[in-house]
Design brief:
One of its GO terms (molecular function) is phosphatase activity. This is Broad specificity phosphatase PhoE. The protein is of the alpha/beta class. 32% of the residues lie in helices and 18% in strands. Strands 3-2-4-1-5-6 form a six-stranded mixed beta sheet, with helices on both faces.
C-alpha cells in the first residue's frame, strides 16, 4: 500500500479587534499578519515541493479565514483550491460574543457549562473527530489516486477540530484545557500513513517568529 501524508494546517491570524469568538460566523478575514502567515505557509510547501515532496491537493474549510490562508499555497503549487466543509470550525454556544470570561459569570450560560468532557457548550469532540477523519481519508485517497506513492494533501482547518483529531490519532482523551493546545496559528499537524494505517504524527510551526504578539483567540 502506498505511503502518504495529510497536512492539517491551522489558518493564520484573523482581523478581530473586538476579540469576538467568531466560530462559524462569516466575514472574519485574515489580518495583515495573517496574510504574511499565509504567504509563509505557501513558501513552506513550495520549498518542500522543490525538494521532491509529492503534493497533490490543497483544500480548505469554507470559512473566509481558511480560504484566505490556503489560497497562496494552491497558487504556489499550481493546484486548484478545493472546498472541504467537513473541516469547518466547531459549533459553539458563545459564538459571536466577546469578553468570554465575563460571559461565563452570567447565570444564563451556566447550563452550557455543566459538562466539559462533551463539551456541553458546543459540538461534541467525537463528532469533530469523525468529520475531520472522513475528510482526511477522502483527500488522502484522492492524493494517492492522482500522484501515487508518497502523495501529500494539504487541508486548512481550525484549531479545535485539528487538535482533537490529533489527540484521537495519538490515542489520548479528547477533553483538554484549551490553553494547552499545541496548534498555533498557521501551524502544521502532519498525519503520516502507510496505506490506511496511521504511522505517525508530526507538528511544526513555519510561522513561529510571526506568533510573537499575534492575537491567538480560539475560534471555538
Amino acid at each position: 500500500m502506498p505511503m502518504s501524508t495529510v497536512h492539517l494546517v491551522r489558518h493564520g491570524e484573523v482581523h478581530n479587534p473586538d476579540r469576538v469568538l467568531y466560530g462559524r460566523l462569516p466575514g472574519f478575514h485574515l489580518s495583515d499578519r495573517g496574510y504574511q502567515m499565509a504567504d509563509r505557509i505557501a513558501e513552506h510547501f513550495a520549498v518542500r515541493k522543490d525538494a521532491g515532496a509529492n503534493i497533490a491537493t490543497v483544500a480548505a474549510s469554507p470559512l473566509l479565514r481558511a480560504q484566505e490562508t490556503a489560497r497562496p499555497t494552491a497558487l504556489a503549487l499550481g493546484l486548484t483550491l478545493l472546498e472541504e466543509p467537513r473541516v469547518i470550525e466547531a459549533m459553539n454556544h458563545f459564538e459571536g460574543m466577546s469578553h468570554i470570561k465575563k460571559q461565563l459569570g452570567n447565570p444564563k450560560h451556566w447550563p452550557f457549562l455543566v459538562n466539559p468532557f462533551r463539551p456541553s457548550w458546543g459540538e461534541k469532540y467525537e463528532a469533530q473527530v469523525k468529520r475531520v477523519v472522513e475528510a482526511v481519508k477522502v483527500h488522502r485517497d484522492l492524493a494517492v489516486k492522482l500522484n501515487g506513492e508518497g502523495a501529500e494533501a494539504v487541508i486548512v482547518s481550525h484549531q479545535l477540530p485539528i487538535w482533537v483529531t490529533r489527540l484521537s490519532a495519538e490515542g489520548k482523551p479528547l477533553w483538554h484545557d484549551p490553553r494547552h493546545r499545541e496548534c498555533s496559528l498557521a501551524s502544521i499537524t502532519s498525519l503520516h500513513f502507510d496505506g490506511e494505517r496511521l504511522t505517525g504524527v508530526e507538528y511544526s510551526e513555519p510561522c513561529e517568529d510571526l506568533l510573537i504578539g499575534a492575537a491567538n483567540l480560539p475560534g471555538a
